[in-house]
Design goal:
Elements lengths: L7 E5 L4 E2 L4 E2 L1 H13 L4 E4 L11 H14 L4 E4 L5 H15 L3 E7 L5 H15 L3 E5 L1 H4 L5 H10 L3 E6 L4 H11 L3 E4 L6 H7 L3 E4 L4 H14 L1 H8 L3 H7 L5 H12 L19 H17 L24
Parallel strand pairs: 1-4, 1-10, 4-5, 5-6, 6-7, 7-8, 8-9, 9-10
Antiparallel strand pairs: 2-3
Helix pairs in contact: 1-2, 2-3, 3-4, 4-6, 6-7, 7-8, 9-10
């Protein structure tokens, strides 16, 4: 059997900043990763696109990984920002030096529409680092469009690829074809917008961020145990908030402000070129958050039996925040 990344929800962790200097807020980050563990995430993805990894210095990337390693026992996937082989290898070696055996894989974006170029890129990375790879198809971030057939051929040629993250719409179509052709886990992303259809199509779960990750976890668990109707019922109350968070060009500041309102991070600052949260949307956001909080209170997810390394922040089902 080919190795494959564990099914479930892998939380994509935001990088909290603080104050006018937008320094990394390691305390908020520590609380956030502990929270993901407490609610039953399968693992965490740090230094991803929504973790603003491209805007972090090498020292800050190391700090983010150090906090994750120290504060949670969950397996970790580290994002790789560079599309160039040499600098991607440098990023991975730095992550390995920090996370060691805790690093389940690195997430590498498809860097060309030509599958031969991607295969050469991934083989060079694996030969240099020995890292297992989650192959990410996210053209909105990478600027690279690659066909589903090409993705399939890349994964088949690279036995060290243990998962695919499919984020090129229509994702349910891509996931159906990838899941049928490949032996590895295929995950959706994009904030969970297509989660139900992706699960029907054969997704192993979701690898994404959302201000109510409990909803995604409950949805995947319901799908695994009781099927579509149970999964639909688990996710339905949160869909307005999911759609609100995934607005083009402002998804990151919106999600960070939602996390702040929940009390999961202390500050919603976003580094350039990210936009500030649009204040005109605050009334809508508060309505969506209140509805999500009520849904969580009415139907709490099953408690996760996982070790925690520190207390979880209090009052996480409210919309008052810090």
């Amino acid at each position: 059997m080919r190795e494959s990344l564990a099914h479930g929800v892998w939380g994509v962790v935001a990088t909290p900043f603080q104050g006018s200097t937008l320094d990394v807020d390691s305390d908020s980050l520590a609380g956030l990763v502990r929270y993901y563990e407490s609610i039953g995430a399968a693992g965490l993805t740090v230094l991803g696109v929504f973790g603003e990894a491209a805007g972090l210095t090498p020292a800050e990337r190391t700090l983010v990984l150090e906090v994750a390693v120290e504060e949670t026992g969950l397996p970790l996937v580290a994002g790789v920002t560079s599309l160039y082989t040499g600098t991607a290898i440098e990023e991975i070696r730095a992550a390995q030096a920090t996370a060691g055996e805790r690093l389940a894989a690195v997430m590498v974006q498809a860097n060309s529409a030509n599958p031969a170029v991607v295969v050469a890129h991934l083989h060079a990375i694996h030969q240099a680092t020995g890292a297992k790879v989650v192959l990410q198809d996210y053209p909105l971030a990478s600027g690279v469009g690659i066909s589903i057939e090409s993705l399939i051929s890349v994964v088949q040629a690279c036995r060290f690829v243990i998962a695919v993250k499919a984020e090129a719409p229509p994702t349910s179509v891509a996931i159906a074809r990838l899941a049928e052709a490949l032996e590895v886990s295929v995950f959706g992303g994009l904030g969970g917008q297509g989660l139900l259809d992706e699960l029907v199509a054969g997704a192993a779960g979701a690898m994404t961020g959302f201000s109510y990750p409990e909803a995604l976890i409950a949805t995947v668990r319901a799908w695994q145990t009781d099927g579509y109707e149970a999964a639909r019922d688990a996710l339905l109350p949160y869909l307005p908030l999911i759609n609100f968070e995934q607005q083009v060009r402002i998804a990151l500041p919106v999600r960070k402000e939602c996390l702040r309102q929940r009390g999961l991070i202390a500050d919603a600052g976003v580094r350039a070129p990210g936009a500030a949260f649009p204040e005109v949307l605050r009334p809508s956001m508060l309505k969506h958050l209140a509805a999500a909080a009520a849904a969580l209170e009415a139907r709490p997810p099953a408690p996760a039996t996982v070790p925690t390394t520190a207390p979880v922040p209090a009052a996480l089902t409210t919309v008052g925040g810090y």
